[in-house]
Amino acid sequence: MTARWGRRSRGPLAGFVAALVLVAGCMVGGGVDESGPEQPGPGQPQRSAAPPGADRTRADGSTSVDEFKEDFAVAVEKAELYWEAQFRSSGRKFQPIRRVVPYQREGEVSCGEQALPRNNAVYCSAGDFIAYDVNWSVAAFRQVGDAFLFYLLGHEYAHGVQVRLGIRYNFTIQQELQADCMAGAYLGGSIKAQQLTLEEGDLEEFREGLLAVGDDPDQPWFAEGAHGTAEQRTDYFFRGYESGLAACNLG
Given 14, 134, 186, 210, which is the most exposed site by the fewest CB atoms within 10 A? Predict the structure, then answer.
């Protein structure tokens, strides 16, 4: 993918994502543990991180690790272009997120004193970096499709923008739903600016993916770590996608 979404989802999307996404989309405080091994640069996950024996998993054999790396690099690039333009239009200088860190093992990367678990993607505020489990991300990319990857990066990047704007809510769910809205604004705005190309079926893939990553219906909305129900997350994402940042209550 250069700047297009074209690979279609294969297999039972909702079941896969519901089982796979544990706490993806979270923002955590603290600083990066700098004692760990040197990490690849932004958008350059290690090729060796692919799940063993699974170079390709789709029936049409269209999704490789190289394609994952290419799409992830594009997602980071387009997020930086989008937010730089938004800050510039409001007379502010934009500072991109310091780095994007792929990891493979639990505890390989820490945010402050908190070791990051597997099957996760987070924005660490004090360290100003995004970290993601590359094995999990590649697996999701192969099974779900590239739209999920762009949404995931967009959501985490939105948390970095919230920090830059000084936005901090009392409840986690407020922070997370706004990040969903901002991710939608980034994707919708990038398509309108012809930075990304929307192809047939992509919106349906977003809707199905968002329905799969909502909180358990029994979880209280005020619980620490709450992200919102499937319906709420879908609603907020498409508010941003259709109406831009004006729908995201940035103040």
Answer: 14
* Alpha carbons 116 and 103: distance in angstroms, whole number: 9
H/E/C letters for each residue in 129-197?
Answer: EEEEEHHHHHHHHHHHCHHHHHHHHHHHHHHHHHHHHCCCCCCHHHHHHHHHHHHHHHHHHHHHCCCCE
* Residue predicted with more confidence, 165 or 20: 165
State how far the Cα of 210 lies from the Cα of 228, in Å rounded to an integer. Answer: 11
φ and ψ at 129, to 5 degrees? -145, 155
Q: How many CA atoms lie within 13 A of 28 on its CB side?
A: 24
Q: In angstroms, rounded to a whole number, what is the distance separating the alpha carbons of residues 70 and 78?
A: 12
Q: CB neighbours (10 Å) of residue 59?
A: 8
pLDDT of residue 28: 64
- Cβ-contact 185, 240 below 8 angstroms: yes
| Per-residue pLDDT at 140 | 82
Read off the pTM. Answer: 0.80
Q: Which residue, chain included where needed, has tokens 């600016």?
A: 193
The answer to whether 14 touches 207, Cβ cutoff 8 Å, is no
Task: Tell which residue, 176, 190, 201, 215, has the closest CA to residue 9.
Answer: 201
3-state secondary structure of 226: coil
